[in-house]
Amino acid sequence: MSAAPLTIAVDAGGADLGAAEVARGAARAAQEHGVRVLLFGDGDLAAPSPDVQVIDAPRSIAKDPDPVRAVRAHPDASVVQAVQAVAEDRAAGLVSGGSTGPALAAAIFRIKRASGIHRPALAIPVPAFEHPFLLLDVGANVDVRPEQLVQFAHMGAAYAQLVLGVERPRVALLSNGEEPSKGTPDVVEAHERLAGEAGTGLNFVGNVEGLSLLAGGADVVVCDGFTGNVALKVMEGTSATVMGAVRRVATASARGKAGGLLLRPALREMRDSIDPEAHGGAVLLGLRKPVVVPHGSFGERGIAAAIGIAARAAREDLTGRTHTALSAGGALRRRPEASAAPGSVSDRP
Amino acid sequence: MSAAPLTIAVDAGGADLGAAEVARGAARAAQEHGVRVLLFGDGDLAAPSPDVQVIDAPRSIAKDPDPVRAVRAHPDASVVQAVQAVAEDRAAGLVSGGSTGPALAAAIFRIKRASGIHRPALAIPVPAFEHPFLLLDVGANVDVRPEQLVQFAHMGAAYAQLVLGVERPRVALLSNGEEPSKGTPDVVEAHERLAGEAGTGLNFVGNVEGLSLLAGGADVVVCDGFTGNVALKVMEGTSATVMGAVRRVATASARGKAGGLLLRPALREMRDSIDPEAHGGAVLLGLRKPVVVPHGSFGERGIAAAIGIAARAAREDLTGRTHTALSAGGALRRRPEASAAPGSVSDRP
Prior knowledge:
Two copies of one chain form a homodimer.
Chain A: E1 6-11, H1 19-33, E2 35-41, E3 52-56, H2 67-73, H3 78-87, E4 93-96, H4 100-110, E5 121-126, E6 133-136, H5 146-162, E7 170-175, H6 185-195, E8 203-209, E9 220-222, H7 225-249, H8 254-273, E10 282-285, E11 291-293, H9 300-315, H10 318-328
Parallel strand pairs in A: 1-2, 1-4, 2-3, 4-11, 6-9, 7-8, 7-9
Antiparallel strand pairs in A: 5-6, 5-10, 10-11
């Protein structure tokens, strides 16, 4: 790993906790990860560290209901300026501390796709209790072809290995059954390809079902962005609903209350163990440079982790090594095709 | 509701708890729901009630790895004989107390699709904590067209109203965002149709996200069988994982153990409140007669509930009233098409 100082562009416009919180995260990342930060946001932000350069960009398009239009209409917006710094090689990666929709739209627009990539995919580390895994795509593409699923598999595996530190990531396709014949025609075809030449160099373990998603059968789970978005949100919703039900029974009676009080520290520890801030948030894979999109609610710690993730992806040459893996599997895009349409970018998963 | 005695055909071959347990469920249903039961299974079964007629059908294909082939090859199999009784109008509905795969294959094969239906869909009542809802399709069709999603909406609404007793069921499409523009092209088109003429008579409330699926936004949630199967299993898996984690923290320390002991009765009550046996299991909608597929693990109570569901669907003329609703929305299949291919039937969701 290179020790050269690396610059990450960070958009502070529109973060739930405010730009000053993002700035604190940037300062923390500078110290923890040895990076420099270009911070785009309101100019009143005092630079919180000599390694953080604040660039005046008071216009935020974080709340715009039409991110694609807003990105086109406002080149001065903080997120567009941050993306532009990456596109022009003034920074090695992007962290959006603001709203996800505009960040994805701007990045897909202005940071070129990496060579040989069909479409970028949004990947999110799911902080499951005992078996965290990377899920992609979770919303960048609602409709995908088998060759795109194959690329997602390689992109996710490279990310899990180089950035998340999983030694030989087990890669699976999300399907409605474990047998290779299960799934939509596209999933079945992707399975065939990944079990064949396209899976070269990949630790492809076949299909995984929704039931065992959290049970640790795979480190990287691949699907189209529609299914991935639904699966991710169903996990979040179910988890919140079950925890809410446990909380309710623990306050419904005197006996329950006593039990709840005794259990509270352990339950809090359990909740902390699945803290998504520790993982830095979602990442858009398949562009020339890493783009990390922490959740809008993240505080200093989450922002710092996101910057660390972007720096690690850049230092490990994620893009180049993903290209090598795709090439080994004969899974690079061969003919030129229409450029990725930001119109299909979905909101924050 | 007619008080005429109604006959339900029940397959006892291959139930996890054995044919005798299914027979007890049949006797219970005869009493509770005023039905007669044709019970297909091993002839050694003593008829447990004068209203239960045991028909000797010792061959079970419940464990056959290729249900479609097995159904074709073994007309004497218990499930095929039970289906045949329904197809020949000797029974008004089917309950499969055995394995789901063969039941679906045999039913789709031999019980005709209801007039004007594109494809049958598998619907399951999800026993969410405070807001149960009906989810369909959960696995009968991995690939669907917009006009099929429209039919699923009407089929699910009629079932929720007539059989589950929901007064004016709110029907939603499962998607990756609430806006009408969100989803695959097929989901977007189905949304347009349901918001227009095809939604006539329907209480269509738009899209629902995975996050709010369990939060009570809809009584009937419609999607393709791939997405529905993944969503259902992710719910089950997440719920089990979270409850397992709670159990673990409640046994990891003396303090936790004490708390867990105090909470145990309330947690058990919570678990019982989401008992799937109470709801009778999944149902295959869109055939001429109701087909109910309780989970293989169901006991007497679940089997009896399933028989009750089939009887209610028959008495309420679910098929006829679904047809009327589809007709009002101009959503009936117009041209003849290839018959539903049982080859695409998936296993138990």
